Amino acid sequence: MTVTDELVSYEDALATYDPVMGLEVHVELGTRTKMFCGCSTELGAEPNSQTCPTCLGLPGSLPVVNAVGVESAIKIGLALNCDIAEWCRFARKNYFYPDMPKNFQTSQYDEPIAFNGHLDVALEDGEIFRVQIERAHMEEDTGKSTHVGGATGRIHGASHSLLDYNRAGIPLIEIVTKPIEGAGARSPEVAKAYVAELRELIRALGVSDARMEMGQMRCDVNLSLRPHGREKFGTRSETKNVNSLRSVERAARFEIQRHAAVLNGGGTIVQETRHFHEEDGSTTSGRIKEEAEDYRYFPEPDLVPVAPARAWVEELRAGLPELPRVRRERLRTDWGISDHEMQSALNAGAIDLIVATIEAGAPADQARKWWMGELARRSNEDGVELAALPITSGQVARVCALVADGKLNDKLARQVIEGVLAGEGDPDAVVAGRGLAVVSDEGALGTAVDEAIAGNPGIADKIRSGKVAAAGALVGAVMKATRGQADAGRVRELILEKLGAEG
Amino acid sequence: MTDLTRMTAAETAATIAAGEASATEVAQAHLDRIGAVDEKVHAFLHVDTEGALRAARAVDDRRARGEELGPLAGVPLALKDIFTTEGVPTTVGSKILEGWIPSYDATLTRRLKDAGVVILGKTNMDEFAMGSSTENSAYGPTGNPWDLTRIPGGSGGGSSAALASFQAPLAIGTDTGGSIRQPASVTGTVGVKPTYGGVSRYGMVAFSSSLDQGGPCARTVLDAALLHEAIAGHDPLDSTSIDAPVPPVVEAARNGDVRGMRIGVVKEFAGEGYQAGVMTRFNEAVELLRELGADVVEVSCPSFSYALAAYYLIAPSECSSNLARFDAMRYGMRVGDDGTHSAEEVTALTRAAGFGAEVKRRVMLGTYALSSGYYDAYYGSAQKVRTLITRDFERVFGGVDVLVSPTTPTTAFPIGERADDPMAMYLADLCTIPTNLAGNAAMSLPCGLAPEDGLPVGLQIIAPAMADDRLYRVGAAVEAAFTARWGHPILEEAPTL
């Protein structure tokens, strides 16, 4: 298998085959400390500075369960409409890898904390698709390997590897769907919408920031095809670590086309893990699973069973926030926008930012305009999520207020936003620093308007004769003369006033 | 002046508290004794002369300042080399950890230090506590002070030999299948496996997590109780540690009495494989208990016959996972790191060179027993047997207060005799293993010397979980009666070396 896989067209693939997907999402919890020790989970620290005997797997060390981690897992389970286990255990998943300190991962196996749930996800046209949830279980993250000396950053060709165990032991919740059937041609869209919905849910629960570009949420896309009408699933491929919503959709789409080509050519799909490539949206073969890996799971003897009291579970259930889909529908109506526009805001991760901006005093349409326009463009360009841009909802609201007060026009406001993103300080500081205030001195503005009228007598006559639309050219001249720092609305009013025309 | 090394721990603490000898003098006397005899015995893997004298001086300073000293302040102790000690090597008897200096103290180590106990050094053991003779140590065998050509038991042979050769009045052992009790039995000393969860496992290098239990070793029942009290109790760093008050072991040890107690003799612990002299001394002990006023009855625990088989599935399974961390990446030995081998190869080469034969045998057994397709037949079945054994205990403890049996079927065997016969070696733990599987408490204490070889025989007392105090109540009564009958403690009969 190489990068130059044969593909068939998406439409042809769907004409012959029915895709079945399974999605596995890992969420890093935002707990203050690790899952089994007291080490900090803060990102960005010096390598191996946030470690202790337990998360380094030193001889003699033992784990202790993080109660907040269990609570977060139960919240996620409840929000996914799962049953919560009355009694469950951790299990050891045994395999050797240098970034796993104990050479077993403390996870859960046949006794997950949450199981048998579902999540309703909204597609772009507003249709609701129900994704069945198999289970959500607790486990710990591994350390991080950095392979040095090779061309690709992968282990192949590297001269040595560096290990950072700061991430080892950070709590993870793995959420596994049941096979997603019946989505047909919309399968990639369902996959993307599911991950988007899950991300919103996780954020609404306050258990994680779920920032995919930071690895706080990672998705594996398992996909197989079967000819229409056949019940038995085909062989699946497992595309690992697909780390953006768009990539989830692309990976599913690519695999549908690749599988179809292989099957059409009389070949068989190999059960294997595949790597996804952001650059061209393709996947390439990783490790071939000739025999199923034997993890030799057994109950973790160093931990006692987790038996959440029913009263506690009910208390957590009662405290669940409004579900994101319900909340979105409420906001959509409040804001007066379409399903499609709401879906775009969701995919951009903008909803909470818009809400916060409105709460900080901005009108809904203005808040949405900035986050979905200028700022969404910047987040795409920079390849970071909206929430990660160095601007706060309060700052955006302040820009909106300055525009509403006539102190900035749209063009200047964009420059202010740019200044904030460039680290020049709050909007007011950028306005002062760059000297961006709208020319609101009526005297100065009046002079500029008079000069524009004098310099364009032909246009002035047209306006006098009632061709009000021609005023645009004079407004442009004034704006040019004031280097854009005038309130265009006010300029237009002055021109019409001076020429005795009715706006 | 009396020989400071011949005193009990209780006497030593009293001597120091009264100012008749300083803790430093006591420590130095033991260090001198180690210097004189340990070349022959080889109880210690590492003697921490400096650390011991520093700890002793700290006790002397505290006494000089008029501070109140705890019941074991200044008493020297030999620590099994399975507990981590900050700044002091911890090898677990394995080459794979040679040179490793832990960055942290085990909870037990910390509690000993807090109690003012003077840790003399780290004692020899079967590699990763896997064995019954200490012959599996990567650093050579330990001799039994009663006969240096014989084994001191295992895995904690270094600790038992240190006690029996008067190199320390107290020692720490760990008991996964009998590693405290069987060494105590064959050296004429006292050893207690507390209830599972009674003593923290944090910092105790794991062999089989669900079976391992640290505990006290001493020359008298009271000393064992004092040490038990110092190391026991809830530890938030060990999730399996019991959050309940420690049973009143010291009080029980001071009030030995079996009058009115019902004592069960497990009938399955007799017959083929049991040395005649062991049964003679055991039966005398049972007779003694009757004379002392106990009501002795015979009980049956039919599932105990499956205990050894279940143990040799569960312990290797857990060890195969626990020992996976020894991969040459973060600490300990590293072989093949010459730029020509991958990380996986370095791990494989290191494990091949660093682990001994018994460890490899058990890692392989356990890996196999946990494999998909075999799990239910092996690990799963073994867990069911474990439940049956627990039920047998529960049933008989409905009718008796404690059980008694020989600790181990034979006296100390010669070094080398069973080294090539794992099955024969495993039989040494026949009577001790059921207690580990069920998680309750047991003690071994001397009940005489076998007539045919003059070597010590151990009496095992078994109590229900969290009734550890019953061991001491019965043990103290038996010890007092036997000492009176013999006219002196049994170790008086051991060679002086």
Automatic annotation (TrEMBL), chain A:
Regions that span the bilayer: none
Enzyme Commission no: 6.3.5.-
Known function: Allows the formation of correctly charged Asn-tRNA(Asn) or Gln-tRNA(Gln) through the transamidation of misacylated Asp-tRNA(Asn) or Glu-tRNA(Gln) in organisms which lack either or both of asparaginyl-tRNA or glutaminyl-tRNA synthetases. The reaction takes place in the presence of glutamine and ATP through an activated phospho-Asp-tRNA(Asn) or phospho-Glu-tRNA(Gln).
Lineage: superkingdom: Bacteria
Assembly and interaction partners: Heterotrimer of A, B and C subunits.
Protein's name according to its UniProt entry: Aspartyl/glutamyl-tRNA(Asn/Gln) amidotransferase subunit B
InterPro entries, per database record: Asn/Gln-tRNA_amidoTrfase_suB/E (IPR017959), Asn/Gln-tRNA_Trfase_suB/E_cat (IPR006075), Asn/Gln_amidotransferase (IPR018027), Asn/Gln_tRNA_amidoTrase-B-like (IPR003789), GatB (IPR004413), GatB_Yqey_C_2 (IPR023168), Gln-tRNA_amidoTrfase_suB_CS (IPR017958), Gln_synth/guanido_kin_cat_dom (IPR014746)
Family listed: Belongs to the GatB/GatE family. GatB subfamily.
Leading EC class: ligase
Keywords, sorted A to Z: ATP-binding, Ligase, Nucleotide-binding, Protein biosynthesis
Entry keyword annotation includes Ligase: yes
Domain spans labelled Asn/Gln amidotransferase: 352-499
Catalytic activity line of the entry: L-glutamyl-tRNA(Gln) + L-glutamine + ATP + H2O = L-glutaminyl-tRNA(Gln) + L-glutamate + ADP + phosphate + H(+); L-aspartyl-tRNA(Asn) + L-glutamine + ATP + H2O = L-asparaginyl-tRNA(Asn) + L-glutamate + ADP + phosphate + 2 H(+)
Keyword ATP-binding attached: yes
TrEMBL record, chain B:
Membrane-spanning segments: none
Keyword flag Glycoprotein: no
Enzyme Commission number(s): 6.3.5.7
Example GO molecular function: glutaminyl-tRNA synthase (glutamine-hydrolyzing) activity
Catalytic activity: L-glutamyl-tRNA(Gln) + L-glutamine + ATP + H2O = L-glutaminyl-tRNA(Gln) + L-glutamate + ADP + phosphate + H(+)
Pfam families: Amidase
GO cellular component, one term: glutamyl-tRNA(Gln) amidotransferase complex
Active-site residues annotated for this sequence: K80 (charge relay system), S155 (charge relay system), S179 (acyl-ester intermediate)
Keywords: ATP-binding, Ligase, Nucleotide-binding, Protein biosynthesis
Domain Amidase: 25-471
GO biological process, one term: translation
Quaternary structure note: Heterotrimer of A, B and C subunits.
Function summary: Allows the formation of correctly charged Gln-tRNA(Gln) through the transamidation of misacylated Glu-tRNA(Gln) in organisms which lack glutaminyl-tRNA synthetase. The reaction takes place in the presence of glutamine and ATP through an activated gamma-phospho-Glu-tRNA(Gln).
Protein family membership: Belongs to the amidase family. GatA subfamily.
The name this protein goes by in its record: Glutamyl-tRNA(Gln) amidotransferase subunit A
Species of the source: Streptantibioticus silvisoli
Lineage: Bacteria, Bacillati, Actinomycetota, Actinomycetes, Kitasatosporales
